[in-house]
């Protein structure tokens, strides 16, 4: 493929310019082509960071994508929905979405590679198909893209805040108001680097809305809708108002509730997601029921 770069591309990076022209390929894949010498600028190799001046002739010889680095593993998956572009998984608590931080097997990605032939490569070799994530000890519905076009379509909906995400959370204490909105920026905790915090003036904008759906002695059951998808967002926001999620000792929940068995996870569940289907734009709403272990634990709580 040959591109004659116009003057209005001046000042952009080479990989950016090519990604604009080849949206079906991830930027990381284009960078690999450039590094491998498959991209020539005026007949010569260039870096991905090359600053375009305008008027250059760029020749691109696409290379076959490398094999996925993650290894397929025969791990059972609960599928809530599937079509040619995407699959919705009911992720169990305890399963890591993709490799990282010392975890290299038993992940959702390992299971996906065994179950499905094709997954999008937009997120890189270790995260094929992954459009968004859930924390390890959070369960619920999670979308996976089967191809790059669907991935871009879904990612644009997430970044444009057009995806409705609703969670069920059981929190410590009595939440006073029946409904509420938490709008506080989230940033990395400067002291405890494994934590996030909503107690600083700086950070990435985030908001969460909740409504009370049940009350118990010492606990409140909430339905939580988030308009942003920051790391640990619901856990951080609810902890910031004095109501940590049950089972979440990182954000202030007690490790043991008197008279109750250990929970072994967060009482946080991605219950419902609403989005536009990439193939035709039809609005889909997918629901994951509350897992049995959460029902059982909640049933053991003393009523008001």
Key structural traits:
single chain; 304 residues; alpha+beta; Structural Genomics Hypothetical 15.5 Kd Protein In mrcA-pckA Intergenic Region, Chain A; Pseudouridine synthase; 3 domains; 15 strands; 17% helix
Estimated structural class: alpha+beta
End-to-end distance: 69 Å
Helix content, binned percent: 10-25%
Count of spatially separate domains: 3
CATH fold name of the largest domain, please? Pseudouridine synthase
CATH class of the largest domain: Alpha Beta
- Measured by DSSP, the beta-strand proportion falls in 25-35%
Please give the number of β-strands.
Answer: 15
Oligomer: single chain
| Global geometry | elongated
Tally the helices: 6
Rg (CA only): 22 Å
Q: In this structure, how is the largest beta sheet organized?
A: 9 strands, mixed
CATH homology superfamily name of the largest domain: Pseudouridine synthase
How do the SSEs run, as a string of H and E? EHHEEEEEHEHEEEEEEHEEH
CATH architecture of the largest domain: 2-Layer Sandwich
What is the mean predicted local confidence, pLDDT? Answer: 93
């Amino acid at each position: 493929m040959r591109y004659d770069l116009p003057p209005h591309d001046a000042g952009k990076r080479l990989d950016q310019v090519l990604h604009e022209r080849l949206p079906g390929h991830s930027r990381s894949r284009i960078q690999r082509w450039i590094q491998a010498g498959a991209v020539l600028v005026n007949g010569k190799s260039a870096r991905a960071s090359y600053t375009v001046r305008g008027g250059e002739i760029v020749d691109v010889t696409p290379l076959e994508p490398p094999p996925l680095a993650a290894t397929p593993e025969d791990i059972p998956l609960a599928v809530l929905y599937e079509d040619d572009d995407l699959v919705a998984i009911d992720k169990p608590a305890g399963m890591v979405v993709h490799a990282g931080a010392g975890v290299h097997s038993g992940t959702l990605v390992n299971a996906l590679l065994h179950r499905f032939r094709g997954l999008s490569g937009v997120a890189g070799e270790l995260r094929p198909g992954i459009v968004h994530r859930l924390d390890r000890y959070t369960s619920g519905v999670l979308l996976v893209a089967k191809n790059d076009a669907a991935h871009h379509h879904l990612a644009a909906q997430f970044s444009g805040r057009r995806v409705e995400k609703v969670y069920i959370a059981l929190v410590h204490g009595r939440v006073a108001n029946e409904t509420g909105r938490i709008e506080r920026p989230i940033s990395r905790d400067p002291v405890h680097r494994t934590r996030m915090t909503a107690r600083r003036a700086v950070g990435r904008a985030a908001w969460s809305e909740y409504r009370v759906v049940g009350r118990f002695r010492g606990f409140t059951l909430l339905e939580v809708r988030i308009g942003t998808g920051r790391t640990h967002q619901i856990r951080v926001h609810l902890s910031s108002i004095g109501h940590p999620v049950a089972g979440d000792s990182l954000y202030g929940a007690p490790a043991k509730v008197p008279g109750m068995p250990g929970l072994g996870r967060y009482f946080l569940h991605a219950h419902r997601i609403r989005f536009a289907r990439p193939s035709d734009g039809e609005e889909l709403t997918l629901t994951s029921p509350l897992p049995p272990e959460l029902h059982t634990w909640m049933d053991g709580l003393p009523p008001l």
